[in-house]
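Sequence in, structure out. Go.
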Amino acid sequence: MSTIIRWNPLREMAEMQNTMNRLFDDTWRTIWPAVQSGTGYGLPIDVFETDEGYTVVSDMPGVKQENIHITLNQNVLTLSVEIPQHTPQDGQRLLIGERSYGKFTRSITLPRPVTSDNVEAVYENGVLTLTLPVSPEAQPKRIEVKSNGHLLKSNN
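Output:
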């Protein structure tokens, strides 16, 4: 016995949309493996903020230190890295190629001004860590409250 199902064009369109999404996801995943990370960027970063400044951490495994370029211009931090393509040795054939290679650039705008003279970059074990102190003018300041010309005592 067969069941009669009412035709619903919206259901058909939704199914078509899902099929197309899967097609494009699978295509981009093989063309540009960095999209697999979910960030959409080939150079993933973490940015941490404190009152004193920022810390930026980026994984760059297998990258030589001389292939990392960092610039800071008007609170725009730009990381550029070049990852060379691994060439197979004689007699080797590539079976699976998922590693990213090429030139990657990532720029972010920092919300507060940074003292560029005190920026520190450390590259260890494939991880780049940048320490970016904010300028003294941009750091939070505690303001004492006066009453009739006298400082109010606080419990802090």
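Check: The longest helix spans residues 9-31. The chain is about 15% helix and 30% strand.
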